[in-house]
Amino acid sequence: MDAQLPPAVHQFANDALVWVGFGTLVGLMAKAIMPGRDPGGAVATLCMGVGGTVIGCSTLMWFTDGQRVTPISPMGFVVATVGAFVLLFFYRLLGGRFFVEGDGGTRLRMPTYARRRARTNVVRIDE
């Protein structure tokens, strides 16, 4: 007995696998453009890539008066990467990577390596 999937199920599985692969590539590209440590792992990268693809292609479609852009094209890859980059930026911004609450409101957070260097270059003059 040879069991075959209906064509609709086969097409859906194919599309889902393409979106997962493409979303992973786009998420990795966005993380390569904005390096740094992220608490998100592979699933967060995948979701960020798929979300960036939807945001980037939708925005381009809105600005070009409804001209459809397929994600699996050079232009689709570029706008998807930009969309994922924007998502990563806001993810880090809302996650407290750039700002920290202080005594007088919010202030810009100094990177760890700069804080260590600032402490070692302090010269004290004792009277």
Structural summary, described in words:
The protein is mainly alpha-helical and 127 residues long. The protein has one domain (8-98). It is built from 4 helices and 2 strands. Strands 1-2 form a two-stranded antiparallel ribbon.
> Can you summarize the main beta sheet?
2 strands, antiparallel
Q: Give me the secondary-structure category.
A: mainly alpha
Task: Give helix and strand order, one letter per element, not per position.
Answer: HHHEEH
Number of domains: 1
Q: Summarize the amount of helix as a percent range.
A: 55-70%
Number of strands: 2
Biggest sheet strand order reads 1-2
Q: Could you name the ranges where pLDDT drops below 50 across 5 or more consecutive residues? A: none
Count of alpha/pi helices = 4
Q: Specify Rg, calculated over alpha carbons.
A: 22 Å
User: Strand fraction band?
Assistant: 5-15%
Determine the mean pLDDT: 75
Q: Which overall shape is indicated by the principal axes computed on the Cα atoms?
A: globular
Spatial gap, N to C terminus: 94 Å
Task: Offer a few descriptive terms.
mainly alpha, two-stranded antiparallel ribbon, 4 helices, 2 strands, 6% strand
Could you provide a short overview of the structure?
With 127 residues, this protein is mainly alpha-helical. It contains four helices and two strands; from the N terminus they run αααββα.
Write the layout of secondary structure elements.
Elements: H1 7-33, H2 42-63, H3 74-94, E1 99-102, E2 105-108, H4 112-120
Antiparallel strand pairs: 1-2
Helix pairs in contact: 1-2, 1-3, 2-3
